[in-house]
Amino acid sequence: MIKLKSKSTVIVLVLLVLFFLFPLMSKQLFGNTGNYMLLIAFNIIMYTAMGSTWNIIGGFGRQISWSHAAFFAIGAYSAMIPLVRWNISPIVGILAGMVVAMAAAFLIGFPAFRLKGVFFSLCTLACGQIVYRLLLHFTGFTGGASGLVMKKINSDRALMLLFKNNNVYYYMMLLLAVLVVAVCIIIEKSRLGYYLKAIREDEVAAESLGMRPNQVKLCAFMISAVLMAVIGAIYALRFKYLDPESVASHDLAIRIGMTVIVGGIGTVWGPLIGAIITVPLLELTNAYFGNMLNGGLSQLLYGLILIIMVIFMPDGVISIKSLWQNHKVKGGL
Amino acid sequence: MSGLIQVVINGLMIGGVYALLAVGLTMIFGVMKIINFAQCEYLMLGMYLTYCLYNLFHMDASNNPYIFIIPVAVIMLIFGIVIYQIFIRPIVGRDMVSYILLTMGLSYVLQNAAQIIWTANPQSIDTAIKSKSLYFAGLDLSVPLAKLVAFVLAVAFVLMVSAFLKNTDMGRAMRATSEDAQIAALLGINTKQSYLLAFGLGSLFAGVAGVLLSPIYTVYPRIGTLFSTTIFAVVILGGLGSVAGALFGGLLIGIVENLVGTYLALDLAPVGVFVLFIFVMLLKPNGLFGVGGRKA
Amino acid sequence: MRKKSMGKIMALVLVVSLLAAGCGSGGNTAQPTNGGTTEKANSEASSEAADTTAVSVVKIGFLNPASGNDAESGMLDTEGARLAVKHINDSGGIKALGGARIELIEADTTSDAKQAPSVAERLITSNSDLSAIVGTGFSGLTLSILPITEQYEIPMVTNSSSDDIVAQGYEYIFKVAPLSSDFGKLQVEFIQNLNEQYGLDLHKVGVVYVNNSYGINTAAGVKSMAEAAGLEVVVDQSFPAGFTDASALVTTLKNAGAEVIFPIAYTNEAKLIYDTMKSMNYNPLIIAGGGGFLWPSLGNALGDNINGTISAASWNWDSKNILDNPELVKVYESFEAEYGHYMTEHGGPNYLAVWAVKEAIEKCSSTDPKAIREALASLTEEDSVYLKIMQPGTLGFNESGWNDGTKPVLIQWQDNKPRTIYPLDMASSELILPDSLK
Partners for B (CB, 8 Å, 3+ pairs)? Predict the structure, then answer.
């Protein structure tokens, strides 16, 4: 139950308020680098949202999917292609993207969920790669490897979701992230979440009790994909450039899952913690160690830190307090 | 018709390469039930080792790298054992998620360590065999020699590994551990040693694959990424834990890749591989040679 | 699950990481933000002696990938820029600012177009006295950074080649390199000349290209040129970047009977293509579309076997416009002395980019990015001999920011170095006809 007076809920609300106020405070707090901090905050929020959608199927249900970058890409391209090619508002694009992502999730999930464990994961990896290769292949439609780029925005056009001030996109992403996390909380407390937990613990037993696991998994997968597509669309509008390598690649798929695993897989706040850690970590290693030692040092450190985190915090950073107390926190909330 | 034969031969040749890489990966999975996402980075290290040894001994176009198979194998075996002790042993017994993060982090670390040591510039060894081939004028068929060697050795390795697993105590211990680690431990089998050995051998195979591939490819820190998704597909398609499956899966994927690439579009070759993969997985969820659906 | 601990951890981690990131990059925020105007007033007041209020260091940002897939060519870009900075500083720095030195602030964009904007924003916001930026060598990364340089009104000079870069209406971007789609014209002309001069009948061409932005654009250019010239394009296929096997590609080309091929690939792929062609006894004439076919690593990989290969290039070190200028000869000689290999197709344009910024600063006597932008827009090769380094020896940015007078050249590998062979008014050496054509 969400107790309104609970200490942690207060902390979460405080954080939320901080995020909302951040664009107004960043110049005061950080001076010239205020905008950069806003960009980092945007990325943290975005990865929180991405991780949360992944968590619905990957965390609650323990179906580790490596295809979520494909849904992100579908959303991003659905917003960009109509805008750049035919001057159609991204609002239409986003809706279209949600439909396409849902269909893609169905097409991918229907065969993939027949497999279990690592077989499922690698099947989703294959599907994600297919989407990536198809985006590269149909150059005429998607722009292929050259990508799609938006013209310079000279004036705000709200109906086209084009704004000169990036803070608008910041708030859009923040609201979206709040929505996604809210959806996660609701699912977690709902029957769907209960079923997913049952599947996670013992799918065979759950099935024998009359549940239809494939339907449940597919449902969670599709919800996850639809939300991810919207995130992708906002990303595209904010950054105004995309290509298959940056939005549909294997590396992104892994990074999404990794963010959640680092934070605490299967927990509602795991993605937030994971994003708060991994996004600045990448920036820090680049800022302090970029261009050193033939360019390899920054990412070497990033990889090492991830390894150390997984060795010492197997259930994610969220379990850190309980580790100190020598308990093992198994699973989620 | 000879065109088709050439395409199939092309497929078999690259398939042998895939098989060689897949054998190590499948062995690690079979025994330890983890997918080692850093497997192809061992390949990269094997290639760099070959390159260093080649230069150390001032070899040139008149030599070939195969004499380094044994030294590289030994070094990579030791390396695999060291990595196991430092990184893998602390997380043995944990769930899959830990292994995923760890081996992925490891692959980042290895790639970037290689970049620090050797820079991002591709290096290569100069050896005559790289462009030699057996040419059958009648059929207008050519079989690249370097790849043929890799293919033959891949098959030889698979046979050796199968023999090892069937006929030696250590091999049988590994198979027992792979079937059911708990019961194997109860029966007195040193499962920790099996894990160690599996990991070390996986590293060894990838390293040897590196030697065999060094005439064909240039070596650079990210060369492993060229193969990794394909190798995962091979291993699952062939059946996790099945060495014969790795060989067969590799060859099959190599052939399909070449058929799609030659007759459809080069760009769609990876799509063809993944479609095949999904198709096989739907028909035989445990892979072509996979053993029944018992979970670890 | 312990909600209390979760909440506290989150708050703590958030605050700590944001502060750390802020402090880490905010090191240089102590500079006055109106440094530009102050310096201008100073340089007007005391143009000769270096007085204590004049600026002594001019900061130029450098954005290129040092990690990830594009690290190799990022490094090649860096070599050119660093050498230019060294030369400028060694020869007395920026005269109009009393001998101010240039400091190149390098940042690793990584090869990820999602990450590059963060790096650019960090570079700009933590160096408030940044005058200009040079970078990147990759169209995708450059495109992702454009909104940022525009927002902060900092001019960026790039050697990326995609048309898209100057077609979006951005005013703070300057592109020095020729269009990759222009390569095709040269490649096709060259074949026609060969046919005439040597009585050959090469008319079946194969266009195979790596599926990335550079490959797509260059291939489109050569394909349309070839068709317009009446050549028969028997193969037109892209292949995945990072493929493991060239057999299918070579088999396709061989089966189609391509006599000339226009490949675009990077080092590993090019090596695979070469070796596979040799092992299949297939020896078409190769007129490559640049990319890895011009890099030292391919020369090392193929050794003497690379000699004879022809390729288009956006720039080459021994074209006539360079050989005719002893100053420019010194440039490539010092490049070779510094880095141990010839000055690459990436090194030249980056050298030019830094020098163009320097000359722009000389022109407007200011470190203010807006003034530099205006100066860049009106820069020509007359402003300095070092601006003559792009073939055919001219420089001039049109309204959209493109140096539209620049032209690509054809090179042939001779003695393990790429030598300019075409067009004839740029050539430094003659074509050595490949054996397969004799």
Answer: A, C
